[in-house]
Amino acid sequence: MRSIRRIVLTAVVCAAAVAAFAAEPDADKPKPLDGKALFKTSCKVCHDTKAAAGEYTPMTLIQEQWEEFFTGPYAEVHGQVAAPAAADKPEQAALKVTDVIDEATLEAIRKFCVDHAADSEQPMTCG
Ligand code: HEC
Fold it and tell me: What pTM value is reported for the model?
């Protein structure tokens, strides 16, 4: 009798563990940020074809130019430019592009631009 109860109990515990695991497979693993998707949502909004601010895709510049851009000009220029959300949210009117793109996001975008620059092995526009 005792061993049957033990088997049932073990089965129940295992089933619960499997269910919990299946529900959240990578719950505690941080997902790597998708630079391409972030470029689309954070940069392309202002730098699409015919954009007033100029069209920029990773292959607009070479790797060295991107590296240089992200070390200085990015913050200088975009610290003066109102964030896209400001247009329809008056309470965010003071926010600049540099306020709404966090460090990890910017790093993922930087990597995407450098990895797919005009002189990279896989030059890319952004979809
Ligand atoms: C809210 C609009 C907006 C967003 C979002 C935005 N930019 Fe810009 N960007 C601008 C404006 C405005 C300029 C200045 C254009 C000019 O000087 O004529 C600019 C300039 C640039 C330049 C040229 C800088 C130079 O030194 O001449 C590059 C490259 C650039 N942006 C890349 C990006 C990247 C990469 C992102 C995303 C991380 C981004 N931008 C996000 C508006 C934006």
Answer: 0.81
Which atom of ligand 1 is closest in space to residue 106's alpha carbon? 38
Ligand 1 pocket residue status of 40, Cβ below 6 Å: no
In testing the pocket of ligand 1, which one of 36, 38, 39, 56 has its CB within 8 Å of the most ligand atoms? 56
Residue closest to 59 by CA, chosen among 47, 51, 71: 47
Cα maximum dimension of the chain: 79
What confidence category does residue 14 fall into, taking pLDDT thresholds of 50, 70 and 90? very low
- Encoding tokens for residue 23? 């529900």
pLDDT in tens, 58-76: 999 999 999 999 999 999 9
